[in-house]
Write a structure and sequence with these properties.
single chain, Isopropylmalate Dehydrogenase, 9-stranded mixed β-sheet, 17% strand, binds 3-isopropylmalic acid, binds magnesium ion
Length: 362
């Protein structure tokens, strides 16, 4: 567990509570170690990610992350910023497949800024390529030109192998859902987009012809996401477009505080894959330590961990049902507060999840 900064430790703390319940009631116990990531690691060790923590993460079956960053560390040199720790962790663990589901819980359909009928029942999955593209492409940097002005460069680059491995994950996921994949790029402007489209098409024709594949330009996809999000099932896209489109999709659901994510690596010979689970929301330093944060995104990330890392799909579904139930019963943290609902705290929400699990388990 890497609780991180801001509200990270609070929301991860509620997962501890849920884990304790599994320990007591389901005979599933977790061997947990904690480490520092982000600003807190910089405070303690002068770097957002130490080699020791990286090694711990590499040796774990799964990593649960809170959130990193905050104003306290904003003026640090670029390479020492909390976010660099997170990016290095993703890269070193080679977690190329980032699953960002955006689903609307029925009880929260009215919390969206979009019309209720546009989002009710929404269940889409954005699959973001996470270790390539412009986030890591070389050359990169800022240089000073002879006339004293400056020039900044970043490079968008993708290889066949990088596209195909994330494409496979998209098609496999779609087969377990509505069997539809929409591949998103800007093939009208970027060569990397041309290659992306061609490789996705080829992979589809050769190995996944049973899945419906469509292609869309990223700008159109942004528009379609707010116009009619339910047209999508799985969206697969590159690192940068995925970053932008997943924030957009997150907001369809009414609260960033509700959305989990999983970042997965390749399956190794023993059938295992490295994985990090984290809420989509940030460290929200403005509400840190106040007991106001919504822990559900992190608890739902733990549910994804049970499903994807430990093959405990029934237990994952149990948590998701407990969350659904408590929302229907009117429990709300500040971020999803609605008139007539019952306002509760971070720990109140964690306790409500445990109470719900207890009830469901009989
Ligand atoms: C995300 C975040 C990160 C990203 C930042 C914090 C580096 O926005 O996970 O979406 O850009 O990948
Ligand atoms: Mg982002």
């Amino acid at each position: 567990m890497l609780p991180g900064d801001g509200i990270g430790p609070e929301v991860v703390g509620e997962v501890r509570r849920v884990m304790d319940w599994f320990d007591r009631r389901r005979a599933v116990s977790f061997d947990v170690t904690e480490g520092l990531l982000g600003g807190c690691s910089h405070d303690a060790h002068g770097t957002p990610l130490t080699d020791e923590t990286l090694e711990q993460a590499q040796n774990a079956d799964a990593v649960l992350l809170g959130a990193v960053g905050g104003p306290k560390w904003e003026s640090l040199p670029f390479d020492e910023q909390p976010e660099r720790g997170l990016l290095r962790l993703r890269k070193e663990l080679d977690l190329f497949a980032n699953l960002r589901p955006a689903m609307v819980f029925d009880a929260l359909a009215e919390a969206s800024t979009l019309k209720t009928e546009v989002v009710r029942g929404l269940d889409i999955l954005i699959l973001r390529e996470l270790t390539g593209g412009i986030y890591f492409g070389e050359p990169r940097g800022i240089e000073t030109l002879p006339d004293g002005t400056r020039r900044a460069v970043n490079t968008q680059v993708y290889t066949t192998a990088e596209i195909v491995r994330v494409g496979r994950v998209a098609f496999e996921l779609a087969r377990k859902r509505q069997n539809r994949v929409c591949s998103v790029e800007k093939a009208n402007v970027m060569e990397s987009g041309v290659l992306w489209r061609q490789e996705m098409g080829k992979l589809h024709d050769e190995e996944y012809a049973d899945v419906e594949l469509s292609h869309m330009y990223a700008d159109n996809c942004a528009m379609q996401l707010v116009r009619d999000p339910k047209q999508f099932d799985v969206i697969v896209t590159d690192n940068l477009f995925g970053d932008v489109l997943s924030d957009c999709a997150a907001m369809l659901t009414g609260s960033l505080g509700m959305l989990p994510s999983a970042s997965l690596g390749a399956v190794d010979e023993s059938g295992r894959r490295k994985a990090i689970y984290e809420p989509v929301h940030g460290s929200a330093p403005d509400i840190a330590g106040k007991g106001m944060a919504n822990p559900l995104a992190t608890i739902l990330s733990f549910a994804m961990m049970l499903r994807y890392s430990f093959d405990l799909a029934d237990d994952a579904a149990l948590i998701e049902r407990a969350v659904d139930d408590l929302l229907s019963a009117g429990y709300r943290t500040a971020d999803i507060m609605q008139p007539g609902a019952e306002r509760t705290t971070t720990s109140g929400m964690g306790e409500a999840v445990v109470a719900g699990l207890e009830k469901l388990a009989g």
